Amino acid sequence: MNGINVAIVGATGLVGQTFLKVLEERNFPIKELYCFASSRSAGKTIEFKGKTYVVEELTEQSFDREIDIALFSAGGGISKKFAPIAASKGVRVVDNSSAWRMEAEIPLIVPEVNPHVLSHNDYIISNPNCSTIQSVVPLKVLHEAFGIKRIVYSTYQAVSGSGVKGLHDLEAGTTEFYPYPIVGNCLPHIDVFLDNGYTKEEVKMIEETKKILGDQNIKITATTVRVPVKYGHSVSMNLEFEREFELEEVYRLLQSVDGLVVHGHENSLDYPMPIDVEGHNEVHVGRIRRDFSVDSGLNLWVVADNIRKGAATNTVQIAELLLDYL
């Protein structure tokens, strides 16, 4: 392949900038690169592989040119408006917002988990929620082996999940974005509250997990918490299986998963932390132990860089899968 034409929508944002880093690191076969953003960012310049690119304002005419794949990270409203426009012109869109995730006809992809649901007919593909992505990477093999009956998620999510505004509140000690101080604090509140008392983030994790694992019968609950960490989401997962298991078999299965780093088999002090995963693309799992309070219960601690695997890296991995359809 001589290269394909790629567009970045939201090129000046935190995830958009990381798209470019990951594309370069993975030597994605780019022939022409187009960078789009809002009118406020139009005219700015971006460096990529030694070349300078001028950011263009995203308009309804932006895709009236030869573009093969567009990576979107500009918010749900932008994705709802512009992804169908791009798709109608033959562009395959990988969208990082929540706009399309729960649409039945839109594939929701984690390449280590469900690449098989992609088809030649898919022109809008959704990237899951950051915490969901890192959670389902270890869950797939365990579900196939033992049948997951129930999941209890508790997340500890970095402020970069809120973008530059969240980072600013942590670094400057302000409450310009969050309703309460994040410095030295934990906020059990990510996204908006729903009528049932859950936040939208919690419902995203519940519903997306079922869709990605292809099983609507798993019982799932979640509590999502923002913590004063810059990069790296952590998820405590309590699992209850349909069938009995041995811990050695759990370790063996997890060690077989591409992109998953397993900790703690030989040393209990070997567990993953956000400070260690920042800037890395892999998902890390540790604190693997039985839950003795229920039959066939297991606890896991899963950590990943939310801007990398939780957003940009997973999106680029999906784009790599799409190369087979171009």
Q: How would you describe the overall organization of this protein?
A:
By secondary structure, this protein is of the alpha/beta class. Helix content is 29%, strand content 25%. It contains 8 helices and 14 strands. The chain has a 6-stranded parallel β-sheet with strand order 5-2-1-6-7-8, sandwiched between helices. A hairpin with a 5-residue loop joins strand 13 and strand 14. Helix 1 (14-25) crosses helix 8, helix 3 (130-146) crosses helix 5 (200-213) and helix 3 packs across helix 8 (308-322). The longest helix has 17 residues, at 130-146. The protein is globular. The mean pLDDT is 97.
Concise summary:
By secondary structure, this protein is α/β, with parallel strands linked by helices. It has eight helices and 14 strands.
For the biggest β-sheet, the strand order reads: 5-2-1-6-7-8
What is the mean pLDDT?
Answer: 97
Give Rg in angstroms: 20 Å
Distance between the termini: 10 Å
Record field, number of beta strands: 14
The level of helicity is: 25-40%
Shape, per Cα inertia axes: globular
Provide the β-strand percentage band.
25-35%
Q: List SSEs in N-to-C order.
A: EHEEEEEHEEHEHHEEHEHEEH
Structural class, please? alpha/beta
Most strands sheet: 6 strands, parallel
| Count of separate DSSP helical elements | 8
Low-confidence stretches: none
Provide keyphrases for this structure.
alpha/beta, six-stranded parallel sheet, six-stranded mixed sheet, 326 residues, 29% helix
Secondary-structure topology with pairs:
Layout: E1 4-9, H1 14-25, E2 30-37, E3 45-48, E4 51-54, E5 56-57, E6 69-72, H2 76-88, E7 92-95, E8 124-126, H3 130-146, E9 148-157, H4 164-172, H5 200-213, E10 219-226, E11 233-241, H6 247-255, E12 260-262, H7 274-277, E13 283-291, E14 297-304, H8 308-322
Parallel strand pairs: 1-2, 1-6, 2-5, 6-7, 7-8, 9-10, 12-13
Antiparallel strand pairs: 3-4, 9-11, 11-14, 13-14
Helix pairs in contact: 1-8, 3-5, 3-8
